[in-house]
Amino acid sequence: MNKVLMIGLDGGTFTLLKPLIEEGVMPFLKEFLSDGVNGDLISTLNPLTPPAWVSIYTGRSPEVHGIFDFMRSVAGDGKIVMFRPNNFEDIRCETIWSMISRHGKRVTTLNFFGMSPPQAVNGYLVSGFTTWKHLRSATYPPSLFETMKNLPNFDYKKLGMDIQEEKKAIWGLQEGKYEEWIKMHLERDKSWTDLLCYLMETDPTDLTAIVFDGPDKLQHLFWRYLLPELAENNLGAWDSQIRELCLQYYRQLDDSIERLVRIAGLDTNVIMVSDHGFGSSTEVVYMNEWLAQNGYLKWSEAAEIDPVGRIASDRSRDNKAMMMLDWNNTIAYAKTASSNGIFVKDVNTFGVGITDEEYVEFCTKLRQELLDYRHPVDGGQVFVNVYLNQARMEGKQSVESAPDLTVKLRDGGFVSILRHSEIVRQRKKPEGTHRPNGIFAARGPAIKSGEQLKSLSILDISPLLLYLLDLPVPTDLEGRVPTEILRDEKLINNPVELYGVTQLLEERTNQQEQQISDEEKEALLAQLKLLGYME
Question: Name one Pfam family in it (predicted).
Fold first, then answer.
């Protein structure tokens, strides 16, 4: 009793799922939604996979858990910014896997971002976003990896990224490779489903959680094939074939969800969440070009005009884009496309930049100039909102990796950090990009039936999971238990209990440092570039 199954759909959005349900592609999801409750789940300020998933499994915002992006900058050679992938060692808060384990309950968690090197849990853990060569060092307990290797009719390598396949995509995915790429994700998500079904059948745990990352990847590359209003009048015979293969992915996803829910049983509460939603992006906004044209940044002599929207292969290594900047004459810059963040140089660190006394006035002025900027052709506001780093504005300590300003574009897309002759360029075809509104759905013995919800916060998920497991909710979690989704008898018999605080993570039991090769790092960057997160 009191078991919980959490199914994560990376990039899951009702904007697409509801039309697919109407089309008959996902019949089990239709049944699931009608039997339980559903509504939007509002993501982090910048709706991006790493900060959003970490907020889901810590119950804390990026300003507290410290994860803002896929990568984080580290000290490079001189003043050049270099990057490395964020990992578990960078997360500053206790995870829900830890909270549950220290209360004596057991957990299975598969394919979540940032869980490598793996945290020791009372159960099973395999981190996501890992190459297959590193799956052994991303798995806990070590015996689970041996089990995965020896499962009959199961290829554990399909769980991870394939270095050579990812590197093929460094220039973008050629149309001739579309089918092969979609089939690779069909096989990968099926492998995760098969592994979780095996674990649920042989050793069920109190909380079982998995992320399917295929929706995000397909929607980035094939949004124009998936969204009915974009696909209806623009597909030839070959395009229709690609759309059908995409639909096959969602049919399989529906089958996977049904398999997991059936195995979990009727006495299990099931919740379904996504880290962010999805929508169309119609233009490219060159953030660093805007900063250059407004006197905050200077390009170096190595900075070439981006002709096609993607960085050339000889500049594809992690720090080369930053070498396009003249650091001695740059005060503010964007590091990555995915963060939508602007970083202000501190004179005390860089020798050139802004003093502590100048910081508030400088950021306030920069924010207003961004908000005042208008598209040169249509006159529309391009930066519809610009968020300041409130902690730094108030002179308080802030997470080092946090940007000083975060922009929200009018089409909801990510910025480009490359050089271009224009600040805004129209895309030839709409592409898929993130939106704040993800999905929440739930069904089970403690959950109401047939209700449409007002939006929940992504920070509410950890408190809800703890409550459904009959565990106290730490008082320092930022979200709440969404009692509006719960049956009255559940709340009467088991009132919400706020008690204690989360534990600090100094006593991490697994201090294994994951060392990834340059080749693997290049493969990871290739995948991020393909999906539009890095340039």
Answer: Phosphodiest
Query: So what's the pLDDT on residue 535?
Result: 65
Cα 326 from Cα 338, distance rounded (Å):
22
Q: pLDDT tens digits for 298-341?
A: 998 887 776 654 433 334 444 566 778 898 899 999 988 888 99
> Is pLDDT at 163 greater than 70 in this prediction?
no
Among residues 78, 51, 76, which one has the least CA distance to residue 65? 51
Q: What is the DSSP string of 317-352?
A: STTTTGGGB-GGG-SEE---TTT-EEEEPBHHHHSS
Q: Are 140 and 118 in contact (CB under 8 A)?
A: yes
CB atoms under 10 Å from CB of 179, counted, come to 13
Please provide the DSSP assignment of 425-493 as one string. EEEEEEEEEEESEEEEEEESTTB-SSEEPPPEEGGGHHHHHHHHTT-PBPTT-SS---GGGB-HHHHHH
Nearest to 416 by CA among 275, 215, 281, 217: 281
Q: Judging by beta carbons within 10 Å of its beta carbon (0-12, 13-18, 19+), is residue 315 exposed, middle or buried?
A: middle
pLDDT exceeds cutoff 80 at 440: yes
In angstroms, the CA 31 to CA 169 distance is 38
- Burial of residue 423 (number of CB atoms within 10 Å: 0-12, 13-18, 19+): buried
Provide the pairing of β-strand 456-457 with 37-42: parallel
CA distance 93 to 478: 12
Element (H, E) at 165: helix 163-168
Written as one string, the DSSP assignment of 274-298 is -S-EEEEEEEEEBHHHHHHHTTS--
Distance CA 32, CA 300 (A): 55
The residue among 104, 143, 146 whose CA lies nearest residue 121 is 104
Start-to-end CA distance of the chain, whole Å, equals: 48
Q: What is the 3-state secondary structure (H, E, C) of 292-324?
A: HHCCCCCECCCCCECCCCCCCHHHCCCCCCHHH
Sign of torsion, CA 124 127 131 136? negative
- 31 vs 40: CA distance, rounded Å: 18
Q: Which residues contact 255 (CB under 8 A, 6 or more apart)?
A: 28
Question: What average pLDDT does range 341-366 have in this prediction?
Answer: 92
Tell me the average pLDDT across 114-130.
Answer: 93
Report d(CA 40, CA 454) in Å as an integer: 7
Residue by residue, what is the 3-state secondary structure of 377-423? Answer: CCCCECEEEEEECHHHHCCCCCCCCCCCEEEEECCCCCCECCECCCC
Task: Tally Cβ neighbours within 10 Å of residue 373.
Answer: 17
Distance CA 363, CA 332 (A): 10
Say if strands 107-112 and 207-212 run parallel, antiparallel, or are unpaired.
Answer: parallel
SS3 54: helix
* One-letter amino acid of 305: I
User: Contact at 8 Å (CB) between 6 and 100?
Assistant: no
Amino acid at 166: E
Residue with tokens 């209003």: 229
Whole-prediction pTM value? 0.91
